[in-house]
Design brief:
Elements lengths: L2 E4 L3 E7 L2 E8 L1 H9 L5 E7 L9 H4 L3 E8 L5 E7 L6 E7 L19 E4 L4 H10 L5 E5 L2 H6 L1 H9 L3 E5 H8 L4 H9 L5 E5 L5 E5 L3 E4 L13 H16 L4 H18 L6 H4 L3 H14 L5
Parallel strand pairs: 1-4, 1-8, 2-6, 4-5, 8-9, 9-10, 10-11
Antiparallel strand pairs: 2-3, 6-7, 11-12, 12-13
Helix pairs in contact: 1-8, 3-5, 6-7, 8-9, 9-11
Bound molecules: adenosine monophosphate.
Adenosine monophosphate binds next to strand 2 and helix 8.
Length: 301
């Protein structure tokens, strides 16, 4: 099954204790697609400026990602810059320049409108809503966001959540959204806003999935090579939604596997800057990490 994603296509300037990059390929829709394409074909909606180096997206085009819905507009590409300190889980945003996203009104190509799986990646919730309005009858809508939008566009975001089946938030975001520090209580409050499943991403401490009747927790892959966490959330979402679309089943067992595939894809992503690690993965590597996860959480009776 195909996956439709709307989100940022960005040029990121990032500094970590291990190095820095300037104007590197980034953005929530790009990280998502780079991961999801290993599981299912992806249709991207987004916008870039005239300064965007289009050839950088060739690896996606060559790997079952359809970029027909990525428009080029007059002006500069979305830019984001962030810095990580010695605690690699802590990130400070230095600058967010919406640029061409400020006046962007997505118009979905006709072939996108029957998308069975929709991922609303981190972007202005007004655009997320715009896209939802143009999709006919999605089986599952999954949504991500961040502090920037929870603070700045809360009311629209709440409208999006009403129409979302699965929402992904990190610990800080969920606390900010519902004003509750206990993650279980906070998740239940989010379930009251519309979604039937909440996935709380806890960085190097794994991910928690809460629904009305079930609860699941998965650790993060114990990698020794965390180089740049940028895009961890989006690549997690790529593995998660990509797997669900491939299985075309969102029962509890598949949701659990999706969390593990999400964790696997995020663990690869953080090993290098930008898309470097997600560019050339082999299916065998993905499956090996999936099996390692199995072993990690297995107990004998
Ligand atoms: P993550 O580390 O998973 O939260 O995602 C980082 C990516 O999100 C970077 O590549 C940024 O370009 C992008 N990003 C950062 N801030 C925003 C924002 N306010 N809206 C959309 N995308 C953003």
């Amino acid at each position: 099954m195909r996956v439709l994603v709307v989100g940022s296509v960005a040029l990121d300037t990032v500094k970590t204790p291990f190095g820095e990059v300037e104007d590197a390929l980034g953005g929530s829709a790009v990280y998502f697609s780079a991961a999801a394409r290993y599981f299912a074909p992806v249709d991207v909606v987004g916008v870039v400026g005239e300064d965007f180096p289009m050839a950088e997206l060739d690896f996606l085009r060559a790997g079952s990602v359809n970029l027909e819905g990525v428009r080029t507009a007059k002006g500069r590409t979305f830019r984001w810059s962030g810095v990580y300190g010695s605690d690699i889980n802590e990130r400070e945003t230095l600058d967010t320049q919406l640029n061409v996203f400020t006046d962007f009104h997505p118009e979905l190509p006709e072939s996108y409108r029957d998308a069975p799986y929709v991922f609303l990646a981190n972007i202005d919730p007004t655009l997320q809503l715009d896209v939802l309005d143009q999709v006919r009858a999605p089986k599952r809508v999954v949504c991500d966001t961040m502090n920037f939008w929870i603070e700045g566009k809360r009311e629209v975001l709440l409208k999006v959540l009403k129409r979302t089946h699965i929402v992904m938030l990190n610990e800080g975001e969920i606390r900010q959204l519902v004003g509750e520090s206990n993650l279980i209580k906070a998740s239940k409050k989010v379930l009251n806003l519309g979604p039937e499943v909440v996935v709380v991403k806890k960085g190097e401490h794994g991910a928690l999935m809460v629904s009305k009747d079930a609860f699941f927790f998965a650790p993060a892959y114990p990698t020794e090579h965390v180089f740049d966490p940028t895009g961890a959330g989006d690549s997690f979402a790529g593995g998660f939604v990509g797997y669900l679309a491939q299985a075309d089943d969102f029962g509890e067992e598949h949701l659990r596997r999706a969390v593990i595939y999400g964790s696997v894809m995020a663990s690869f992503n953080v090993e290098r800057f930008s898309m470097e690690r997600l560019k050339n993965l082999e299916e065998k590597e993905i499956e090996e990490r999936f099996q390692t996860f199995r072993e990690m959480v297995r107990i004998t009776a």
